[in-house]
């Protein structure tokens, strides 16, 4: 009988493996998946995690003896498997800081986390919670399940942070990015009545942006549309001198109505109207030669000329 049972279990395992080879079953999770993305300057920060709920359970606290036996992941999603009175997240244990797969933290460029360097890449984010201090861990093994196989030797960075008591009780664990500046952002982990903040900073947004532009232009030499797009980006940030430099490069690569008309408008914005009107005439001639509808631009230039008189 036992032999038959073993055969049945083995056969079931084989069948399950066969099914998994061609079908991914998608079912609702008690802790649903979520993500948050924020661009800081030209750098993207993405956090992907699962959101456990409080569900009337004890979340934080000292570990019971059964949990204290190991310093690894101690969270058990099944209430029946956890010792009575045991916290979901005991102090001093490595925690996936979410549920299901380990929380994933991805940055597209080098950043500073609370002032310490973290290289561009994908990481699993773990924490070691404490009553008065938390350790936030960025581990190079980005694809692990929970923190059960967490290996300290693969840590890329650890930072210490102070937990804060929240005025709002948060039923579902949440990662948010409530504060953003041109070169930094604050990430906040919030569950129940605890908030754990840490800062993400871009060391030099301007230098990084220029490096990315230079690399893109170098990879696409002579692309007048790309050069015009760069000029447009600078113009949108009120960097008129930089915009003029890039539109000149675009015109050098190829004269077109688009870059000539943009140069004319940039010159007008810079107070150089006589020069602008001369360039505008060139733009209109080029547009007509290329069968471009220049009517709107012509009306704009005519109105500006009339206002000057």
Model description:
Helix content is 36%, strand content 28%. By secondary structure, it is α+β, with helices and mostly antiparallel strands. It folds into two domains: 27-201, no CATH class; 220-308, Tetratricopeptide repeat domain (Serine Threonine Protein Phosphatase 5, Tetratricopeptide repeat). Strand 11 (164-181) and strand 12 form a beta hairpin. Helix 4 runs antiparallel to helix 5 (240-253), helix 4 (224-236) runs parallel beside helix 6 and helix 5 (240-253) packs antiparallel against helix 6 (257-269). The chain is elongated. The relative contact order is 0.09.
What's the number of helices? 8
State the order of secondary-structure elements, H for helix, E for strand.
Answer: HEEEHEEEEEEEEEHHHHHH
Major sheet: size, sense and barrel closure?
Answer: 6 strands, antiparallel
What gross morphology would you assign?
Answer: elongated
Low-confidence stretches: 1-22, 75-80
- The end-to-end span amounts to 105 Å
Overall pLDDT confidence:
86
Any idea how many domains?
2
Q: Percent of residues in beta strands?
A: 25-35%
Please state the structural category. alpha+beta
Share in helix: 25-40%
Instruction: Going across the biggest sheet, name each strand in turn.
Output: 1-2-5-8-9-10
Based on DSSP secondary structure assignment, what is the total number of beta strands? 12
- Rg over C-alpha atoms, rounded to the nearest angstrom: 29 Å
């Amino acid at each position: 009988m036992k032999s038959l049972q073993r055969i049945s279990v083995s056969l079931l395992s084989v069948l399950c493996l066969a099914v998994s080879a061609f079908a991914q079953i998608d079912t609702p999770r008690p802790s649903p998946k979520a993500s948050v993305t924020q661009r800081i300057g030209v750098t993207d920060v993405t956090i992907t995690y699962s959101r456990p709920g409080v569900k009337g359970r004890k979340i934080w606290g000292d570990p019971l003896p059964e949990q204290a036996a190991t310093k690894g992941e101690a969270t058990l999603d099944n209430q029946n498997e956890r010792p009575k009175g045991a916290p979901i997240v005991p102090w001093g244990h490595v925690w996936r800081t979410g549920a299901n797969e380990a929380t994933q933290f991805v940055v597209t460029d080098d950043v500073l986390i609370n002032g310490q360097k973290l290289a561009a890449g994908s990481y699993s984010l773990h924490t070691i919670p404490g009553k008065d201090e938390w350790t936030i861990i960025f581990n190079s093994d980005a694809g692990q399940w929970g923190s059960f196989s967490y290996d300290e030797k693969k840590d890329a960075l650890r930072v210490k942070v102070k937990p804060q008591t929240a005025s709002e009780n948060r039923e579902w664990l949440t990662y948010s990015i409530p504060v953003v500046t041109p070169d930094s952002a604050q990430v906040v982990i919030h569950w129940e009545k605890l908030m754990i903040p840490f800062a993400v900073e871009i060391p030099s947004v301007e230098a990084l942006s220029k490096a990315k532009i230079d690399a893109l232009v170098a990879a696409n030499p002579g692309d007048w549309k790309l050069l015009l797009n760069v000029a447009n980006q600078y113009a949108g940030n009120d960097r008129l001198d930089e915009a003029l430099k890039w539109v000149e490069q675009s015109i050098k690569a190829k004269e077109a109505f688009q870059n000539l008309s943009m140069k004319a408008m940039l010159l007008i914005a810079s107070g150089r109207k006589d020069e602008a009107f001369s360039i505008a005439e060139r733009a209109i001639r080029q547009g007509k030669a290329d069968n471009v509808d220049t009517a709107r631009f012509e009306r704009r230039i005519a109105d500006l000329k009339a206002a000057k008189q």
